[in-house]
Design goal:
- Helix content is 41%, strand content 17%.
- The strands form 4 sheets. A 7-stranded mixed sheet has the order 12-13-14-11-10-15-16, sandwiched between helices. A 6-stranded mixed sheet has the order 7-6-5-8-9-17, with helices on both faces.
- The protein folds into 3 domains: 226 residues, Aldehyde Dehydrogenase, Chain A, domain 1, CATH 3.40.605.10; 191 residues, Aldehyde Dehydrogenase, Chain A, domain 2 (3-Layer(aba) Sandwich); 43 residues, no CATH class.
- It is an alpha/beta fold and 530 residues long.
- The N and C termini lie far apart (70 Å).
- It contains 16 helices and 18 strands.
- Strand 10, helix 9 and strand 11 form a beta-alpha-beta unit.
- The protein binds nicotinamide-adenine-dinucleotide (NAD).
- Nicotinamide-adenine-dinucleotide binds next to helix 7 and helix 8.
Length: 530
């Protein structure tokens, strides 16, 4: 059975309802009725009606509203971080760093770049045949963008995508994860307070069926972030109605520690990269490969640092690692670790639940002697596990890193940046970081997305803005009274002139070009044109 097939009931599986619960305590925070198909369609219709006025408002006014959103979020930063910690489980300080900071900076990026990005651009023509035409490139909003989000970054993922969609002039209908509707509501409330019209940004709470209804609600584009199996289902549904999609899917990110890496730095990076958000990050370090000469000291450093981590409720300011989001996620991690152990992996630290802390806690785990036969090295784990394997040379390191169906991000750790960047080019991955991991999602200018079968399209940065617009090309003829040389009136004479015209433009030697010019001279005053 695939890890993702595990069907362990969670509160959010109560039919017709989704539940926000604190994963550290199990306390139910709030329940929501799932939006029905009719409600989803009505939300899309309202968004569609509100969108033209928003677009006509222009980029400058829209960025002013984003600026107000940014300042409101800054004022409420601690409150928002606490809500994230309560509903998703990560420590408050981590929510400030990986969610609030990321969103504030994404707003800054949109404010700084949207006007220039959206303005019309001249497209100079290189061909002599089209020199009399003036080309312009327009970027226009799609209309209604649907955003379907996961629970692991319940604020920053929908917020960063919504900011890009809104600033480009679109309306948004957001279907948040069934586990984290409260964070989405907080986002909606901040947008409204900032001046985003109510109908322009809508939230439809619900489960997979609500998400499916949104995919089929005649939206103009879909930005989906979630697991590979759901992404595949969505891609199939979208294909049947030719709905353009961006799919941000799972990861199994490798980390390469080269023979010249600083072990103290790299082990700190590995421990944070594997355990941040209790390992529930699409970009987290899920496979670590270390040069054999540094393998034992690296293992020792990782275990020593893991021992110092404090696992607990994210609301406690001393906590480093919170709980997993629910029992299903915890069971998935447990099954993978148990399988690895049974196939010979050494559990150096961790490897068990921590029921004394609450319902969903798992101890941060470091594994040695893992192999690519184990699911822990092949399937997304999405939990606080750091499996470490040795390699003998750079070629083998790259081969191991690339031996995966996933290709979201990767990292190389080395004392020699040039060597690190050279290896980065050989890695099959959407992003490669040299001497850091995970933090690329916080770089607002950097495009985010995977390769191989693990994603389509990009979010964040200019490429992310590009996904939110349709390009329109406007061609305007500078000599409107002139019949075009390529119009009817075909015949032997035109064929000769055209041969000359092609020589004039493309012949590799000047004498042939000159002959072509003479031969095609009459093309502009061609007789017998219709
Ligand atoms: P998931 O695929 O179970 O759910 C994601 C969203 O899709 C939820 O809102 C869910 O309700 C909805 N959904 C489920 N079935 C649907 C359907 N048939 N039609 C439409 N919508 C449907 O993922 P999850 O468990 O919420 O999140 C964890 C996964 O997300 C991990 O695999 C992780 O790697 C991935 N992820 C990827 C990125 C990225 O940027 N690449 C970022 C964060 C998380």
């Amino acid at each position: 059975m695939m890890a993702t097939d595990l069907q362990i009931p969670t509160p959010s599986m109560i039919p017709g309802r989704v539940t926000s619960a604190n994963p550290a305590t199990g306390e139910i925070l709030r329940q929501f009725a799932c939006a029905t198909e009719a409600q989803v369609q009505a939300a899309v219709a309202r968004a569609r009606a509100a969108q033209p006025a928003w677009n006509e408002m222009g980029a400058r006014k829209r960025t002013e509203i984003l600026g107000r959103f940014q300042q409101l979020l800054l004022e409420k930063k601690s409150e928002v971080a606490r809500l994230i910690a309560q509903e998703e489980g990560k420590p408050c300080v981590e929510a400030l760093l990986t969610e609030v900071l990321v969103v504030l900076d994404a707003a800054r990026f949109c404010i700084d770049n949207a006007y220039d990005f959206l303005r019309e651009r001249a497209v100079p023509h290189g061909s002599l045949a089209t020199k009399t035409k003036s080309g312009r490139l327009l970027r226009e909003p799609y209309g209604v963008i649907a955003i379907i989000s996961p629970w692991n970054y319940p604020f920053s993922i929908p917020a960063t995508q919504s900011l890009a969609a809104l600033v480009a002039g679109n309306a948004v209908v957001l279907k948040p994860s069934e586990s984290t509707s409260l964070c989405a509501l907080e986002l909606g409330s901040l947008f409204r307070l900032a001046g985003v019209p109510e109908d322009l940004f809508q939230i439809v709470a619900g489960d997979g069926a609500t998400g499916s209804a949104l995919v089929n609600a005649a939206v103009d584009k879909l930005i989906f972030t979630g697991s590979v199996p759901t992404g595949k289902r969505i891609a199939q549904a979208a294909a049947s109605c030719l709905l353009p999609v961006v799919l941000e899917l799972g990861g199994k990110d490798p980390m390469l520690v080269l023979d010249n890496a600083d072990i103290e730095t790299a082990s700190s990076g590995a421990v944070w990269g594997a355990f941040v958000n209790a390992g529930q990050a699409c970009l987290s370090v899920e496979r670590c490969y270390v040069h054999r000469s540094k393998y034992e000291p690296f293992l020792e450093a990782c275990v020593r640092k893991t021992m110092q981590l404090r696992v607990g409720n994210g609301m406690d300011s001393e906590t480093d690692i919170g709980p997993l989001v629910n029992e299903r996620q915890l069971r998935n991690v447990e099954v993978q670790v148990e399988e690895a152990r049974s196939l010979g992996a050494r559990v150096l630290i961790g490897g068990s639940r921590l029921p004394e802390l609450g319902p969903n806690f798992y101890s941060p785990t470091v594994l040695a002697d893992v192999t690519h036969e184990m699911r822990i090295m092949r399937e997304e784990t999405f939990g606080p596990v750091l499996p470490i394997m040795p390699f003998d040379d750079d070629d083998q390191a790259v081969q191991l890193a690339n031996d995966s169906e996933y290709g979201l991000s990767a990292s190389v750790w080395t004392g020699d940046r040039v060597r690190g960047e050279a290896l980065a080019k050989r890695m099959e991955s959407g992003t490669v970081m040299v001497n850091d991991a995970v933090s690329c999602f916080g770089i607002s200018e950097a495009p985010h997305g995977g390769i191989k079968s693990r994603g389509i399209g990009r979010t964040n940065g200019r490429f992310g803005l590009e996904e939110m617009v349709r390009t329109k090309y406007v061609d305007s003829d500078r000599l409107p009274g002139m019949k075009k040389v390529w119009w009817y009136g075909y015949g032997e004479s035109l064929a000769r002139q055209m041969e000359g015209f092609l020589d004039l433009q493309f012949a590799s030697n000047w004498s042939q070009r000159l002959r072509g010019a003479i031969k095609s001279a009459g093309v502009m005053v061609r007789k017998g044109r219709l």
